[in-house]
Amino acid sequence: xxxxxxxxxxxxxxxxxxxxxxxxxHKISGDRNVSFIKFKTPGGYTISNHFNxxxxxVYISEGEAEFSIKNRSFRVLKGDFLFVDYNTAHGYSTExxxxxxxxxxxxxYLEQLIPIFDAxxxxxxxxxxxxxxNNYNEVKENFNKMVxxxxxxxxxDVMGFHCYLFxxxxxxxxxxxxxxxxxxxxxxxxxxxxxxxxxxxxxKHYNEQISLDTISEALHLSSSYxxxxxxxxxxxxxxxxxxxxxxxxxxxxxxxxxxxxxxxANECGFPNNKSFIEIFKQEYGKTPSQxxxxxxxxxx
Length: 300
Hints:
Elements: E1 2-4, E2 16-19, E3 24-30, E4 34-41, E5 45-50, E6 54-69, E7 72-77, E8 81-84, E9 90-94, E10 98-106, H1 107-113, H2 137-150, H3 155-175, H4 181-205, H5 212-219, H6 223-234, H7 238-256, H8 261-267, H9 273-284, H10 288-299
Parallel strand pairs: 1-5
Antiparallel strand pairs: 2-3, 3-4, 4-10, 5-9, 6-7, 6-8, 6-9, 6-10
Helix pairs in contact: 2-3, 4-6
């Protein structure tokens, strides 16, 4: 997969700019405080991890991609919405192509508009299976209204855009704020780097027969400490986390390949086919075969 190092300044343009022989096209409109960007990236490319001095509101309008934020990976699909804080490492890769709509809002500008807004305690990501399943409909509705008003130059629409921006920030603060706020963030920062390293290891080795002892030995951390990090930071046990990662990959293979169930179980790291079926049924209420048939019917 080719890698594309993404970097661009805020510029006042409203046109498509193609990179690397139509590798990635994007349309930017706006000014140095707020930009609205439409990305269209074909399959087979990676937008490498990067840091920005702005907040990002991201809506997946078509396709799918593997999106990463601070070394955690999520499979984003059409209709997903993400909020990315400023100075946060993020990137994505796509095998089949993806289209995204993004607002980039300068950190200082938003601070000036809404001084009390604290983005560090906002967790809004509809693709993250470990976050509470909040209602994202209101978020998406406001995002779409922001897009509509932003694309007009009239003074009334500029006012309308800021009204819906304020409303979106209100919704994020009301519905997507971490419990315990600042205290929780301070606790997370102490061991944030370690949990990122552990998660990165799991994502690289999920298809192997790994255990707590395996990770403990590889990363020189005690098994009990790793278990405690998962419970404290992700509110989930290590084994459950590993199974969710394996299930995410299994679901992708069930819907995007013709591989048989046994091969999928093996390639996703499940100890055997029986274990795969039991864990899958616990999570989705049906067997892998039933799930695949259901998805095929939906596509007809």
